[in-house]
Automatic annotation (TrEMBL):
It catalyses: 2'-deoxyribonucleotide-(2'-deoxyribose 5'-phosphate)-2'-deoxyribonucleotide-DNA = a 3'-end 2'-deoxyribonucleotide-(2,3-dehydro-2,3-deoxyribose 5'-phosphate)-DNA + a 5'-end 5'-phospho-2'-deoxyribonucleoside-DNA + H(+). This is Endonuclease III. The gene is nth. The keyword DNA damage applies. SUPFAM superfamilies: DNA-glycosylase (SSF48150). CDD domains: ENDO3c.
Amino acid sequence: MERVPAKKATTATKRVAAAKRTAKKATPPQKSTTAKPTEKTPTATKKTPTATKKATVTKKATVTKKATATKKAAPSSKPALKISQPESRLSLVRRARRINRELAEVYPYAHPELDFENPFQLLVATVLSAQTTDLRVNQTTPRLFAAYPTPEDLAAANPEDVEELIRPTGFFRAKTKSIMGLAAALRDRHGGEVPGRLADLVKLPGVGRKTANVVLGNAFGVPGITVDTHFGRLVRRWKWTDSEDPEKIEALICDIFPKSDWTMLSHRIIFHGRRICHARKPACGACPIAHLCPAYGEGETDPEKAQKLLKYEKGGLPGQRLKPPPDYPGTAAPPLAAG
């Protein structure tokens, strides 16, 4: 009878053990608390490149934006003149005519800068002005015209006397031959009068198209383009043409402007070339038409320094004529003895 309780005890023990096993199987394994960060770590790592990329793009955009803003804010020393390449014919004509209008406002007193009282004096003075200044010619011609007032007088003069009178203008031997030759031609072929036709003028000794146009435009009122060294230099700087040939330049400019503008256009361009747009060092910083000039920057752009380069009345200096027109704003040039 003592073995029965032992059996019952064994049975009870087995039941308890079985219950524990059943409970253990039924209870799901608990996830480790450290597993969560481990599982999320790849996700965080995966997001990091995207965030870095966004930050880089944002930074680049900010830098680019700042650089653009700085570039826009920086003042440009050169006026904004954009010329399409090649510039259309219409655009060139409009720009050229605008330059002429603005020069007319700057130089309302533009005029021929040779002293003369009649066509003969203007013709001789223009021939003498080759390779020298109008000022030097104006300082020389008073004595010449006092000694030989007419073509007949000059044609009959002693060449050595004429050479001595015009010596200050340079190349005096060649110039003496020219002015005495044209005086003789006027005497023999034109009755001592200067002809008013281009075809007749260019047949005179020492007279080319430039000289003929000066005489026609200023002594006879016949419009003409005077292509001297200043005129040619400026129209090339302004990109009106790239030609070096005076006759081609004349033909092209005549085609851009109406005939009524030709003579005054020549005066304005020559005035500007002598006073501001110089050959070696243009006064770009003091130029009233810099905003229209494709060559801006070839010369001095600083306004104060450019102001010191101005000549004649623009620089407060005497002009080239001993007897300037009444409306000329500058002062007369000194005679040869005082020069």
